[in-house]
Model the fold of this input.
Amino acid sequence: AQPGDVRVIDQDGNGQIDNRDNVFITTDPDWYGSINSTMSFKGFDLFVDVFIVQGVTKLNSVLANGELWKGAINGIRSKYYTPEFPSADYPRPKPDTHLHLFPFAVRDASYVRLRTVTLGYTFPSEMTNNIGISNLNLYFTGTNLITSTDFRSYSPEQDLVNGNSTVFPETRNLTFGLKLGF
Done:
């Protein structure tokens, strides 16, 4: 081992790093939940849904599959160990480092997400009845607008347990709509 190498712990103390040194974790969160609210005032209506996941541990695919070693184009854009930067959080790049990255890549994936916001306005019937419309509502809905997490990868919801290492982040959707009633 050299300065900047990944440190792997010999869990069973037999002097070898092998499968008996594995430590198994669960990817189930300690708790999760949603807080939502609907408010209305003078024709405006607002719906907000915040989703919270806490105490979840996941394998960070960016760290586990060696993406870190691509330098400035890596997904987390972090500095790794060099003699000039010895206090880095990430080990030095070397060809066989990825063999021991899985323990290094296990990270807290807790997050808080603004999952849904809908803002709408319903026009008063006095305005719409004159043109033959009984109900007119304009609205905007946004999903997955903001995610707050320390999990520095593509998505804190990624699921590598099923062997899917090509997980993409959840899409952000913006929808503008018009509801008409006759």
Residues 19-181 form one domain. The first strand starts at residue 31 and ends at 41. Residues 32 and 84 are 42 Å apart (CA to CA). The chain has one domain: 19-181.
